[in-house]
Design a protein that fits this description.
The protein is of the alpha/beta class. The protein has 14 helices and eight strands. The strands form two sheets. The protein has a five-stranded parallel sheet, sandwiched between helices. Strands 1-2-3 form a three-stranded antiparallel sheet. Helix 6 crosses helix 7, helix 6 packs across helix 14 and helix 9 packs across helix 14. InterPro entries: P-loop_NTPase (IPR027417).
Length: 326
């Protein structure tokens, strides 16, 4: 097995999962050319000699200085994976899509928070000289936003989300798993960013799947707005549609917000390249989606989106995200 010093010194050895009972961290060796193999780093599995475990005590050897780390926070189904992959630009930046270890820290609550400075310092190690690192946590780690930004006072955050009707359309396209996922998301966000709408458990249960999904979307957007208010200029909002329709400008301004410059020509070349020509999650062709889900579903989505907007108005929740990047 590699020594702790070698693992800590080599950015290819990425912190992967936590074993809280054993008080140790799993590392996987993931070379740069493999970063784009799948949609999420959390899905990587160890193979051969590419796995190592270090005790929590070894993390004390991790240097806290050096490198530049920034975040892409998102509300799910809003092209965040695409943006993370597009930011893998040798000589400028590298993008890490959903490291599993951040999910584990979020799942273990404040008991795991003392590990954040070392884990983030490990993720900050640049792959190339002068490169900045963009980490896209899973939306299931959004409870960590405040802790992540506090652990890295120099970090900037992109707050990426879609419009309510687009989110609901994504939930519908995923069928029963998507609708079940939306209900779990609602319960999850209620744990760390509760919104009291005066409904008891029976009333929540009686709502349709898309109504619950709409509330989860609203709570997520409210949580993002709260974080941006506290961040004192360290965060910018970004709409998913801009990633699709203004990709070159999105790349260039995201890098500029992180203190790095890229030419317009280079950004346009990335926007016209292979990353945007294929589905970021499957690697296949970008699916051509009709603007309609069928008359019945279209009407349901429109009614739920309107209902959510009325709830937002009565609760004083702005539907426009503050401090836009573009």
């Amino acid at each position: 097995m590699e020594s702790a010093a070698k693992i800590i010194g080599d950015p290819a050895w990425m912190p992967h999962r936590l074993d809280m009972n054993g008080q140790r961290v799993q590392f996987l060796k993931i070379e740069r050319e493999r970063l784009g193999e799948g949609p999420f780093l959390a899905q990587f599995e160890p193979s051969g000699g590419d796995e190592a475990w270090l005790p929590f005590a070894a993390l004390q050897q991790v240097p806290q200085s050096g490198g530049s780390l920034h975040f892409i926070f998102h509300t799910a189904f809003c092209r965040s994976t695409l943006l993370a992959k597009a930011l893998d630009i040798p000589g400028h930046s590298v993008g890490y899509s959903e490291p599993g270890i951040l999910n584990d820290i979020a799942a273990h609550g404040t008991a795991a928070h003392p590990l954040l400075p070392a884990v983030l310092a490990l993720l900050t190690r640049p792959r190339g000289e002068g490169e900045v690192v963009f980490v896209k946590p899973s939306n299931h780690a959004n409870s960590l936003i405040s802790a992540l930004m506090a652990a890295r006072p120099d970090a900037r955050g992109i707050m990426l989300s879609s419009q309510c009707d687009q989110f609901l359309g994504s939930i519908h396209r995923k069928g029963l798993p998507g609708r079940s996922w939306a209900r779990r998301l609602y319960l999850e966000v209620q744990d760390y960013a509760p919104l009291n709408l005066g409904m008891d458990g029976r009333q929540v249960f009686a709502m349709s799947d898309l109504q619950v999904a709409g509330l989860a979307w609203l709570m997520n957007r409210r949580w993002f707005a709260m974080q941006m208010t506290r961040a004192e200029g360290r965060m910018r909002s970004l709409d998913a549609e801009d990633v699709k329709t203004r990709p070159a400008e999105t790349i260039r301004k995201t890098l500029a917000f992180a203190g790095r410059e890229i030419t317009e020509e280079h950004a346009r070349a990335i926007a016209k390249g292979a990353i945007f020509a294929r589905d970021a999650k499957t690697g296949g062709a970008v699916p051509t989606q009709s603007g309609s889900h069928g008359k019945v579903v279209d009407e349901e989505i429109a009614k739920v989106a309107h209902w959510v907007s009325q709830i937002a108005a009565s609760a004083g929740i702005p539907l426009t995200q503050p401090t836009p990047l573009l």
